[in-house]
Request: fold
Amino acid sequence: MAMSDKKDKLMPMLDKLGVLKKMKKDDLELSGKPLMKRIMQTWLPANIALMEMIVYHLPSPARVCGRAWGEEWHVRNIHEGGFTSCSG
Reply:
């Protein structure tokens, strides 16, 4: 809808998602790809999404210490610190 300039259908949807109140008035005057880009930046900021992915999906070296060799090998490929103790 943002790409096809159907703002009459887009604005109520953005309001329900809570995106409309976070956007500036200048942003709402955009159309096409710039509008879509601004909506996505407001709705799902990349820095927050990336940090959540790291926190939720990468294992903690302290939590994995002492487990099976396969998991230890996986951590060795991710973690660059030492492996002489669990504190790394």
Notes: The chain is about 60% helix and 0% strand. The helical segments are 7-17, 25-28, 33-43, 46-57, 61-64, 69-78. The CA atoms of residues 27 and 38 lie 7 Å apart. The chain has two domains: 7-50, 59-88.
